[in-house]
Each structure stands twice: as structure tokens, then as C-alpha cells.
Specification:
alpha/beta, Death Domain, Fas, Rossmann fold, 2 domains, six-stranded mixed beta sheet, 17 helices, 11% strand, globular, nucleus, Caspase-like_dom_sf
């Protein structure tokens, strides 16, 4: 593949927010008037080539940029990976610590905090309305309110609004002009080791239950929803993938907003001519990875439940990464104007922040969702877009231990920031928290998908909204454990829904042979 074709391929994997992030990061290496006209990845790449910052023989800067915005899967198109870029950064970095610190703040600030910050900042109203946080930072730089040597304004604002993110600024100041990148990379995009802001998970109260353990006696090793063994090779693969903790988000998990926050919350309209499309990507056979036995149970259960809810279901099996992209583009191009919503379920192996094609290559979850933003799929604007992912997000296992009802999550477990696009109306349901394995039984299907289907069937007729349903799914899965009481799992929902989503109650009762009543 020639150099320009490679750049176009990378451009295809970038969304609008990615382009804006790259432009922001390049403000110190490209002339700002040149950046104003850039609207696409290939236009930015052309500017970098014009300034001889990248060329056919040296395009490390592009790898550095993709690394910073956590598009680690696209590094493979450059013939490299996350680990190799990390090793080279101490000797070749171009993007300043200051620029990365600002980007770090923009990635981690929540929607509500962003509004409060904008309210406090001493900027003209026109520089606040309908602006992204990166736009606001650019304006502050333009007015010389913040500079590489003066971030006092940011300190004051974040101290008042978001003290947990203040550590990012403090660490930057501590390093000063002598700051050098450590071997693991100066500053990973959202939670680098030295910039760790240690957002702690809220305490969870769970009580271990051994109910239904008997059904899990066979094939314990098949529970692990992973493309390799838990340790060893899988750990190496994890280093080469993106981290969902480090990707674009407008939300923190388990944050202030709860399903019951407002009984008067406006509802999404579910009265169009059609309910919507439901795409189910079921990857069970891989070139190298272990076969995912039992995945057909999940695909069948999802098909039964979402068909019952009125969606037009399509199941596609064993897609490679390019086929996954092609399938997503096909559904993106459909006319959704007479439909209420869109649902996408992906059942496969995975690593941190990614799902895996049958060719053992990865697609970032961020990219999957980017096809359906308001700018990419206009007919889904203001409509709910639901994504449910059954895949490992790492190599670790949750140990099952006899805990008292008021037991809490260990302090070293961070409060993860998930890559839901900043555009509104998205919901992402992950089968497990970042860094951990998800479990699937080769006979009954996965804990998460079966719990999701079971609770949709039980709670939709009661008029419950989707967030209440997912809260119940969290509880049910957290109480599951294998027959040896060694493995646990905790799902992870995140969302930018602006209204309550309540599926209309179907006219007929649910009947299925695939969604197990007592499923794991």
C-alpha cells in the first residue's frame, strides 16, 4: 500500500471529533491559519506533509497523534502499535506536554462540569455558545489568558468546579520546563501514570449469592470471553490495543445522574412508523482466537427480544474488521427518518476499548459508535442509539470473595471514563468494566446478554425505562459467579441520553426458546 493510500485508510477511521482533536494537538507544529481550513483527516495530513512533518520515510508524528487520541487500532495501519510508539516517544515526541495537558482536560471534563466552567470563564458570550471545550481553550490562548507558562486561570476554575481534574494541571506544573517523557509515554491521553487523577468508584454494596451455581459446573474455562488465555499471550495483546478508559467521553460511570433522577424527565418519542433497526454482529469463529461456543444463544436471545420489541433484526456472522466497517456504513446509510431508534449488538472477543473481527484484528468501540453521530447519520439525529457489547475488555478477573453487604470497591479501582461520543442520545452497555474479562457459558450463553434479555422481557411490560433496566442487569450480573466461586463480573453502562427511553409494551406476550428463564 502506498503512503497516500495508507493515509486515506486512516482518515476513514477518524470521526469529526477526532479531526478536531488532531487539529488542536497540531496547533504548535502547524500555522493556525492553515488549520482553520482543515475539515478532514487527509487535509490535515496534507498540511503535515507540506511542512515536511510527515513523509513516506518518517511519519512518527502521525503515530504520536493517533496514540494521544487513543486510536490505537489505527496504529496497525502505520505498521506499528501502542507499545512501539511508547518506546519511541522519549526520543521523538513533537506534541508539547502543555498541549497534551489541555487535551487531557478536555477529554475528562463531564458535560455538567463543562457548563459550569463555561459560566465561570471570563469570555464573551459569543465565545461560549455552541462551542466545544477545545474551542474554548483555543479562545483562551488567543486572548493570552492561558499560556504554556501560565495556567493559573485553569487552576482556579478547576479547583472550584472539578477538583479531581486539578491534579492534571498540578502534575504539569510540577514538571515545568524540565519535563521529559518517561519510557511508558509522557502522557497517555486520559489517565497517564504520572497524571493519574484517581477518580475513585463510588462504593458498591453487593452480597454474593450462590444461586444457580449448579448450572455452571461444566466447562468453567469456557466462561472466559477472551481470544486467548487470561494470562500470557492475552496480556501482550492488551498492550497493543486502545483503552476504553482513555477514550473520548462526556460521562463518568455511576455519576450523579441516575435513572430515577427526575420523574418528570421528557420521553423519547416512540411513535414513528417503524420501531427501528437492530444489527447483531455475532463473531464466533476466528482465524487464531478460540471459538466462542454459546454465542449463538446470545444472538438468538437478542433477536427474539428485539423482534418482540418491534425492531427489524438482522444477524450477521463472523465478520472481519473491514466487513464490520462495511456493515456499519451500510446501516449508517439507511433511512432512519421513519424509525424510533437504532440498536447495535456486538458479540465477539475484545481487548481494552476494542472489539475483534474474525480476522483477529481490532476495531475500536469509539469508531463503531462514530458512524451514527448526528453528523454521520442525519436521520438518527435526536433519536436514541443503543450499543450493547459482549466482549472482554482486558485480562483481569474479578475475584469472588465472601464480602459483607457494605463491602466497598478497593481504592485502586479507578472510576472509568467511557468512550461515549459527546453527541447526545447515545447509550453504551458494556458487559464488563475496562481491563477485565467477561464470561460466557458454552451452553447457556453469556452472563451479560442473557441478563439483559431477561430483564428487557420482564421490565418493559412494567413501563420501566432502559436505564432502570440496565441497573437491574448490573445487579444480576454482579451476583453471578462460577460454581467454584472464583469469577465475578461487573457490567458498565454509560450514556448521553437526554430523555427517558421507554419501549412501548408489545401487544403479544414474549415467547422464546433461546432466552433462558434461568440463564446465567
Amino acid at each position: 500500500m502506498d503512503f497516500n493510500s495508507m493515509l486515506l485508510r486512516i482518515d476513514d477511521g477518524l470521526g469529526r471529533e477526532d479531526i478536531e482533536a488532531l487539529k488542536f494537538l497540531c496547533r504548535d507544529v502547524l500555522r493556525k491559519n492553515k488549520l482553520l481550513s482543515v475539515q478532514s483527516g487527509h487535509e490535515l495530513f496534507q498540511q503535515l506533509m507540506t511542512e515536511d512533518l510527515i513523509n513516506e520515510d518518517n511519519y512518527f508524528l502521525l503515530g504520536e497523534l493517533l496514540y494521544i487520541i487513543n486510536h490505537h487500532s489505527l496504529l496497525h495501519d502505520l505498521g506499528t502499535n501502542k507499545v512501539e510508539v511508547q518506546k519511541a516517544l522519549p526520543h521523538h515526541w513533537k506534541i508539547s506536554p502543555y498541549r497534551q495537558m489541555l487535551y487531557e482536560l478536555s477529554e475528562n471534563v463531564t458535560g455538567e462540569d463543562e457548563k459550569r466552567i463555561l459560566f465561570i470563564l471570563p469570555l464573551h458570550k459569543k465565545h461560549k455558545e455552541n462551542k466545544t471545550f477545545l474551542d474554548v481553550l483555543c479562545q483562551l490562548e488567543k486572548e493570552n489568558a492561558i499560556t504554556e507558562d501560565n495556567v493559573k486561570l485553569l487552576e482556579e476554575v478547576f479547583r472550584k468546579v472539578s477538583p479531581d481534574l486539578l491534579k492534571i494541571i498540578e502534575k504539569y506544573k510540577e514538571r515545568g520546563d524540565k519535563l521529559h517523557r518517561p519510557e511508558i509515554g509522557l502522557m497517555q491521553p486520559s489517565a497517564p501514570p504520572d497524571y493519574e487523577h484517581e477518580l475513585i468508584n463510588p462504593h458498591l454494596s453487593i452480597q454474593v449469592s450462590s444461586k444457580d451455581n449448579e448450572s455452571w459446573d461444566e466447562g468453567i474455562e469456557s466462561l472466559i470471553e477472551h481470544n486467548g488465555t487470561i494470562l500470557g499471550e492475552a496480556e501482550k495483546e492488551d498492550d497493543e490495543s486502545g483503552n476504553i478508559d482513555h477514550q473520548l467521553s462526556d460521562l463518568r460511570l455511576n455519576s450523579e445522574v441516575t435513572p430515577q433522577a427526575s420523574l418528570q424527565m421528557e420521553l423519547y418519542h416512540m411513535n414513528h412508523k417503524h420501531r427501528g433497526y437492530c444489527l447483531i454482529i455475532d463473531n464466533s469463529i476466528f482465524m487464531k482466537g478460540k471459538r466462542r461456543e454459546g454465542s449463538d444463544k446470545d444472538a438468538g436471545a437478542l433477536s427474539d427480544v428485539f423482534s418482540w420489541l418491534g425492531l427489524e433484526v438482522e444477524i450477521v456472522k463472523n465478520l472481519g474488521t473491514e466487513q464490520i466497517r462495511g456493515c456499519l456504513k451500510r446501516f449508517k446509510s439507511k433511512d432512519h427518518s421513519e424509525r424510533d431508534c437504532f440498536v447495535c449488538c456486538i458479540l465477539t472477543h475484545g481487548e481494552s476499548g476494542t472489539v475483534m473481527g474474525s480476522d483477529d484484528k481490532e476495531v475500536s468501540i469509539r469508531e463503531v459508535m462514530s458512524y451514527f453521530t448526528a453528523t454521520s447519520c442525519i436521520s438518527l439525529t435526536l433519536k436514541p442509539k443503543l450499543f450493547f457489547i459482549q466482549a472482554c475488555q482486558g485480562i483481569y478477573t474479578h475475584p469472588s470473595s465472601k464480602v459483607e453487604p457494605d463491602a466497598s470497591v478497593p481504592v485502586e479501582h479507578k472510576k472509568y471514563i467511557v468512550n461515549v461520543p459527546k453527541e447526545a442520545d447515545f447509550l453504551l452497555g458494556m458487559s464488563t468494566v475496562d481491563g477485565y474479562a467477561a464470561y460466557r457459558h458454552k451452553k447457556y450463553g453469556s452472563w451479560y446478554i442473557q441478563a439483559l434479555c431477561k430483564n428487557l422481557v420482564e421490565m418493559v411490560p412494567r413501563g420501566e425505562d432502559i436505564l432502570s433496566i440496565l441497573t437491574k442487569v448490573n445487579k444480576d450480573v454482579s451476583l453471578k459467579e462460577d460454581s467454584e466461586q472464583k469469577l465475578k463480573q461487573m457490567p458498565q453502562p454509560a450514556y448521553t441520553l437526554l430523555k427517558k427511553l421507554i419501549f412501548p409494551v408489545p401487544d403479544v406476550p414474549f415467547r422464546s426458546t433461546t432466552c433462558q428463564e434461568n440463564s446465567p
